[in-house]
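WARN no homologs supplied; continuing
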Amino acid sequence: MGTVDRPRPAKKTAKNRRKSASSTNDPEFVQLLTPEGRRVDHPDYHLSLTDDEYRGLYRDLVISRELDAQGTALQRQGQLGLWPSMLGQEAAQIGSGRALKPKDTVFPAYRELGVQWVRGVDIISPFALFRGVDLGGRDVEADRFQIYSIVIASQTLHAAGYAMGVAKDGAVGDDGEAVIVYHGDGATSEGDFNEALIWAGVFNSPLVFFCQNNQYAISETNARQFRVPPYKRAEGFGLPGVRVDGNDVLACYAVSDSLLQRARSGEGPSLIEAYTYRMQPHTTSDDATRYRDEAELDYWRGKDPIARYRTWLEAESLADDDYFASVDSEASEHVLELRERVMNLSDPDVTEMFDSVYADVPPSLEAERAEAVAFRASLDEGSES
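OK structure emitted
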């Protein structure tokens, strides 16, 4: 496990400077915590939490990173078929996730482990999915966290439709409900994303599009995806767009809190672009060395979201070495528990694929279920003989 690395100076290459200029030199770029761990003010977005809440964000960041690391380790050990790491994107997920209220509904993509952690959703579900023993059907009403969506940008339409229903049901205003959909920069190149923006805008739906711009749609850079950053495209659909430092957990929290509350109160949809970086390959089946170099990675290591937040906590005397050690110890316990649970996951019953499809199961589906049961029974009989 070990402690989190401290920030270190980045290597200044021409490529690094171009990447830096595209974010931090933008006057509309929202940042409350610099890469060096210094707190700064923003005229439109503020955040004031209790000491325990500030410390809690660090705990969320570290534990979610360690759990995510186990996804990669388990895949390399042959225990998972695939794993899409969120390394480097923890601040975007923890900050936005902590801004959600219990009534809000989440539509994830496929690497939102941090959001799942802060929502209190059983963390085993994505590991079971990528182990191939989870057929995807579950009751999402209790935790308001929808199932992972592997098809790029498809979840944006799902969220737009759901949010339209929230608006038509009048579930906005005082104590209203917001919907948030997570997607990457690659999703903004898909037709589904653009259609979702149209529908959300026209119906004034309480939906926040949360784009984690980690700068690579698998191997394609931003330069091959769009001419202007995603947050500026929102204006063309009649939505406000905000670009936030995706490695700044405080800024992600503040911006998400503001726009989610805007949605809840009935003021309509918006788009947040969290400018961050994917430190690992797209998935464990990807070779990222084919399209990016070590100098680029080293530059972004200097912007590590956990290291900068720890620096600020120490400077403000909000946490000490004992606290950081206790978080590391707790993370280790969660990792050991997770590994044991993954190893003990059992194969699903074949009939589970028919569950959670319809509220009232039609006769045709019941017939298919019976056929599946009979077929499975025939296989068992054959193995016995």
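Residues 51-76 form the longest helix (26 residues).
OK
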